[in-house]
Amino acid sequence: MKITAHQILSNYYRPLIFWAGLLVLTLMLTGCPPTDPMQVRGEIEPKPIVGQIFTLHIDAVSEKFSDEGVITVQMSDEISVVSLGSDWEQKPLVNPEGEIVGKYYEWQGYFVVDKPQAAELSLCVTRPGNFAIYFSAGVGGIAFDDDKLYINSAIDTAEVLTIRQHSRTVRANSTRAPTPEPVPVSAECLGNN
User: Once rounded to an integer, what is the mean pLDDT over residues 82-87?
Assistant: First the structure.
């Protein structure tokens, strides 16, 4: 029996073609990461000008789990809570040593797969400056997501930046701005109503 060069090459390359194809298929399947089981996003309306009340609106969606869940919000002390809905609760923020170092706000409710849960807080910036609002959502201790909004607030203008926009701004503006003077704000803005 005579063996041709074609037979030798096809027997040699056949396993290589199989493994290369398997590798390409694996890369294609793993190249598209799975979606996060939890998504949380926030927006602020109207612009958070110093002394004016604005609303933080948070949407959270569980993409895989229906269960009890929470939305939490933590912010700089220069942002006061004007009003909470009945489903919000203020809680102490405790460090690992057991000392109370601040506060955060928690909303509890039931999440249904792919049905957005919305929660709102009325807030007010009490002095000019740059401040952060951190918020997160979780379902059943399984799924979790978090996000952050940055507020640049003054007495006549304001802007809200996402974490990506803020990162670009920080890199572009490496000089530190002076601390602005406090501005008188209403008792309502301070949350004393």
Answer: 88
